Amino acid sequence: MTTNSNTQSNSVVFQTLGTVSGKQIGVATLNIEKALNALNIEMVEALTHQLSQWRSDNNIAAVVLDGAGEKAFCAGGDVRAIYHAAVATPGEVTAQATEFFSQEYQLDYLLHTFGKPVVVWGDGIVMGGGLGLMAGASHRIVTEHSRIAMPEVTIGLYPDVGGSYFLNRMPGKAGLFLGMTAYNMNGADAHYVGIGNHYLNRDDKALLFDAMATIDWSDDKASNHQRLHVLIDAMQADCKTPLAQSQLQVHQAQIDELMSGDLPAIIERVSSLDSETKEAQPWLAKACKVMLAGSPISLALVHKQAQLGTEMTLAEVFKFELGLSVNCCAKADFAEGVRALLIDKDRNPNWLYKDVASVPNELLVSLMQSPWDENGHPLRLQS
Questions:
Q1: How many angstroms separate the Cα of 101 from the Cα of each of 39, 184, 336?
Q2: 262 tagged catalytic
Q3: Which of 279, 304, 305, 348 lies 20 to 30 Å from 153 when distance is taken between CA atoms?
Q4: Torsion of CA 301, 159, 320, 298, to 10 degrees
């Protein structure tokens, strides 16, 4: 495999790799290892620019996204700038929030509608904004070291980056459970719920790149997709560490029962889990503990999000989420959640409401109301 070009910014490295077919593979590596490759606005802009070029370049047959180091593909979005803007102008939708989320969602939508095969190497930590990138890829590879979550309830947000689309397409109540609890999925869990559609071992990464260079890539996108699926499936069959059993799959019926009914009923059920169950299922005990400590506004929003169903198109989902996200930054628990977790790091948020029963429905309605009319909406999504 040869490197034909290599351009490097501070935060993302772009390469094109040669193949026996004469076509090239574009590789984008998130490159802020010390920050677990968390996405900032510069990275989003760089990715959008380069991916748009690769999409229209007939010589590029496929694209790979990965992260520097072995700790994380991408641990989420760098929301500090949004936090500082929210604190400076409480109650107002800020330009910083609008710009970041608009550009992030446009990038996610670009990946969903890319056409050419897009591989995400989802090894290590994949959370929040990283999951938004992964969900948009056609070939979503998880490993025995994957640790994947949507932890937004811990910072007063909700599972965005298309979560309103992909969470509602998971088995049973799994999507609601993941959104409510910030449960850390392993590779098997992520594969079960569809976040991953392929499984390889961490040590297979170089082998994958080498094998992709031997594919007879063509101008037929559908054929290229199929060839890549066949290749990765064959590699999966040879994994030294096979795909484990998913806790979510094994306990799907229990999760469905736990997450059924209205929100007060769910909270009551989770709160009253007996110690015997918690002791026998530490994964569930931890998930429930995180849920009960999360933002009551966020929990209410996640429950409403689960009621959206599967009727909305992907473009409609991102437009809806943009309004909800900037509203959460302006008048919900976002600023306090970020302060407690990322700024002061005291992990002791003072949420606006003490429990979900105290959250006014009028507030939830206003948060879900777009700040813009259709003509003034910042997102212009082209498939």
A1: 11, 24, 19
A2: no
A3: 279
A4: 20
Looking at this protein, which amino acid is placed at residue 149? Answer: A
Place of tokens 């030294």: 240
What pTM does this model have?
0.96
| Active-site option among 99, 108, 123, 152 | 152
From the list 76, 122, 128, 129, the catalytic residue is 129
- Residue 195 Cα to chain centre, angstroms: 9
Specify the DSSP element, H or E, that contains 157.
none
Tokens of 46: 């760089």
Cα-to-chain-centroid distance, residue 367: 21
What's the number of CA atoms in the CB half-sphere (13 Å) around residue 272?
Answer: 7
3-state helix, strand, coil in the chain (%, to 5): 50, 15, 35
Q: Is 78 a catalytic residue?
A: no
DSSP 115-179: -S-EEEEE-SEEETHHHHHHHT-SEEEE-TT-EEE--GGGGT--S-TTHHHHGGGSSTTHHHHHH
Whole-number Cα distances in Å, 356 to 158, 265, 291, 306: 14, 11, 11, 16
Read off the tokens for 233. Answer: 């499936």
Query: Do the Cβ atoms of 356 and 333 come closer than 8 Å?
Result: no
Catalytic residue status for 323: no
For tokens 């999925």, what's the residue? 185
Nearby residues of 282 by Cβ (< 8 Å), 6 or more positions away: none
Q: Work out the widest C-alpha separation in the chain, in whole angstroms.
A: 63
Q: Which of 160, 189, 321, 336 is catalytic?
A: 160
Output the tens digit of pLDDT for each of the chain's 383 residues.
Answer: 444 445 556 899 999 999 999 999 999 999 999 999 999 999 999 999 999 999 999 999 999 999 999 999 999 999 999 999 999 999 999 999 999 999 999 999 999 999 999 999 999 999 999 999 999 999 999 999 999 999 999 999 999 999 999 999 999 999 999 999 999 999 999 999 999 999 999 999 999 999 999 999 999 999 999 999 999 999 999 999 999 999 999 999 999 999 999 999 999 999 999 889 899 999 999 999 999 999 999 999 999 999 999 999 999 999 999 999 999 999 999 999 999 999 999 999 999 999 999 999 999 999 999 999 988 899 988 76
3-state SS class at 282? helix
Distances (CA, A) of 201 to 146, 159, 249: 10, 27, 21
Active site residue 77: yes
Catalytic residue among 26, 76, 77, 136: 77
